Amino acid sequence: MTLNQIAFLVMGAAALFGAVGVVFFRSPVRAALSLVINFFVLGLIYFMLGSQMLGISQIMVYAGAIMVLFLFVVMMLRDDGKTDKPQTQEGKFLVGLVASLAIAALTYVAVISPTMNYTGEKFNRIYGTPQSIGTVLFTQYVWPFEVISILLLVGIVGSIMLAKRKF
Amino acid sequence: MVAEFFFRLHAEQPILLGLIRCLFVLVAILSLVPPLIWWERRLLSWMQDRIGPNRSGTITFPDNFPVKGLASKKIRTFGLIQPLLDGVKLFLKEDITPNAVDRKIYFIAPALALFPAFALGATLPWGPNYGLYGILTPIADVEIGILYVLAISSLGAYGIVLAGYASNNKYSLMGGLRASAQLISYELAMAMSVACIIMAVGSMKLTQVVAIQEDALWGAVPFLQNWFIFTPFGFIAAIIFLIALIAETNRAPFDLPEAENELIAGYHTEYSSMKFAVFFMGEYAAMFIFSGVFATLFLGGYNILPVNWGWMAENLGWGQGLWRALEGANYWLAPIVFLGKCFAGITFFVWLRATLPRLRYDQLMNLGWKSLLPLSVANFIVVGLWVIMTKMYGVMGGWIAVLAAFGILTVLYLNLVKIARTSPPMEKRTVTLVNPTSERRSVTMVDAKPQETPQA
Fold first, then answer.
1. Residues of B with CB below 8 A from A58's CB?
2. How many domains does chain B have?
3. Is residue B262, in this structure, part of any structural domain at all?
């Protein structure tokens, strides 16, 4: 086993733990914390694949933004660790199990088995750098990029209008 | 010899060398935090006209001491041992865990607070990017150097918020919430001021940021270095970054999360013994590393003086040996100079703590959102203008454009202030005072100056 594989196994286990924890922890704060762990470790896995820009965006945007979710939980839910009722009744568990198995099978058919035996040429290090992403973003995709920024601006202005009490 | 050893390690065992690189940074932080605490306490006491810790470690020899020169003498250490004693005290103190805390998160929180402080230093170059230091620093010279610093520093809030939440104490929770609000607000201004530097450099690599600052000053004075704090937009970005960085590290005058007179001790009220020490250490380590980030971005990194010794040796007709020697000194003293700049930053932190009173919460938010953020966005536009004008019309064109833009922005700002002045300054708030001896009276407050109604 190479060092890369060991690192991947450790990170993958941590990411899985985070993902499972989001669903299974009763306390919302713990669930949010698991989500942070999951996002953070996913960022590390992106680093390992050579996509630095993607990885750091993952940590900065997602792992950083869960902070706001935390605040919502702390301010609004009044979490004491016991408020959330167990979700195993009413056959929900069975339906969930079947659905997740179906998704797993689909993932295997569509993603894992076609890429299992694929060994491409050596990975291009330029691919994930901020320079290459910036170049593509501001030449080929400049129009969608600007449209998205307008959308975000509208979102900000709208939220301020909603939050303001007096008009 | 040492250099050869490291070069061989670099060729044969790159992973081992990577671990050694991490070790250098960790050891530097861990060994420098106690002296930093001593320095802060002594400097603060000097600024406040006190003495500070000066007793510990004083050895008084008795009159009949066998060694002649030492009899009835005192050896003073100026309290240098005090941090060590404090550390021992914190280790040996009883570790109290209150009953009502959320145990697991309560234990995780200090570790989460310490992690970003240590991880921040991973992309900082504390030596030049060639020769021996080239393989020893930074830990990872990644393309996303500055973004890494911003991302990790944004994780710093988790430890504090979780500590405040898990303590199950209203004051702690208030401290944690304040910390997160403060961090989210000031991160914007900080990121925008860093974006100015990224745009001016054209790369996010921190080694590249330092390398660009070694160019000729303003593109015109070749024997001086173009540290960003000497450029107009860099100066403004530096001030914004400095203010934001004090807010990010929760230091006075932005220490609202641990404001003693309002929140007992804020988020670490319920923490004692070593867990408190971990918070304390995280705060000081963050101060130290953030000073390093400031030095790297604006103060030319590890360079002693903003002078290009190499250029002087090549182009001045005289003193070649001297310039070459100074160039060599600049290379070999780089880590010490970098540490010196970090210490200067911390001295500045202490100076601010001794000088400025703590901000009120609304003042804090107003400063962050209404002053720093617009200013940094305007600065960002000016930097963009500078980049374009330099490409189109050369160096002078760029600087003329920058000065003109700043002039226009200043005039616009002054006019805006004049317009704002004509509108009513503040909403009027009415407070009803309860007085048991007479009937209720209402007092109108305008702009924090109470105007008492005449007595009936």
1. none
2. 1
3. yes
Q: Tokens in use for B136?
A: 């020893």
Q: Which residues of A touch B105 (CB under 8 A)?
A: 29-30, 33
**Are the beta carbons of A29 and B105 separated by less than 8 Å?**
yes
Range of the domain at B408: 93-309+330-417
Count of domains forming chain A? 1
CB B249 within 8 A of CB B283: yes
Q: How far apart are CA B218 and CA B270, in angstroms?
A: 52
Q: Flag whether B55 is in a domain.
A: no
Residue A72 lies in a domain: yes
Quote the minimal CA–CA distance from A89 to chain B in Å: 28
Q: Say how many residues make up chain B.
A: 456
pLDDT tens-digit readout, B288-324: 888 989 988 888 888 888 877 777 777 777 777 777 7
ipTM of the modeled complex: 0.78
In a domain, B300, yes or no: yes
Interchain proximity A56–B158, CB inside 8 Å: no
Residue-wise pLDDT for B354-397, tens only, equals 888 888 888 888 888 888 888 888 888 888 888 888 888 877 77
Q: Which domain holds residue A70?
A: 1-81
- In 10 A of CB A27, how many CB atoms? 19
Q: In sequence order, what are the beta bridge partners of B451? A: B444
One-character DSSP codes across A116-157? HT---S---TTTTSHHHHHHHHHHTTHHHHHHHHHHHHHHHH
In a domain, A133, yes or no: no
Contact yes or no for B229/B299 (Cβ under 8 A): yes
Residue B433 three-state SS: strand
Residue B185 Cα distances to B123, B140, B436, angstroms: 24, 29, 43
